[in-house]
Design a protein that fits this description.
There is one protein chain. By secondary structure, the chain is α+β, with helices and mostly antiparallel strands. The protein has a single domain, classed as Protein Transport Mog1p, Chain A (3-Layer(aba) Sandwich). The longest helix is centred in the middle third of the chain and has 14 residues. The chain starts with 5 loop residues before the first helix and ends with a strand.
Amino acid sequence: MPGRSPVTALAALLAGALAVSGCGSGSKSGVSGPTGSGGSQQEGSAALAADARSAATGDIPDNQNFLTLSDPRLRVSMLYPEGWTVKTSASGVTISDKNNLVRISVARGSTPTVSTVQASLAALKSSTPGLTAGTPQAISLRSGAAVKAVYTTQSAPNPVTGKQVTLTVDRYVLALGGRVATVDLGTPVGVDNFDAYRRMIESFKWQ
């Protein structure tokens, strides 16, 4: 996520997020918090880590209702499934339900390229056991040009059962006016959230 590793620390953070009550239809779509978007590009770019205590479930139904996350600190907006837990942190926003994990972080930086995203993932792999990354590719979203990469990562073993949860994560890196957004959309292996996640990333907007 001597001290704890980044994966272990992030797993503990997200485990706490999963314990928080979800944002239902009565929740505010705007999210406030103390952090701005002026941090380094490395902040919030660690691998997602699932909660090993949860089962690998979490299909998003076809009739799922979506809300709009509008974060005045990060100055971005994106749709997310109603009922999911929204949690702010020093590195951005995490949205979770079961082992479905979505994270948005924004920092100052240069326009991403296939080479820079590949180098970032290579560095991430060296510090994250069990991470496997594919080759990034340049794509076009409604919000503009982006670089997409897919990686898989595992949770720490459950202390009782020893089981691990493997996540497949679609990472999108976008930039505008010196701001770089990293959007990670993670889902457990065996769970198909392709359509819902595609809708979410296509809804991403700069503010």
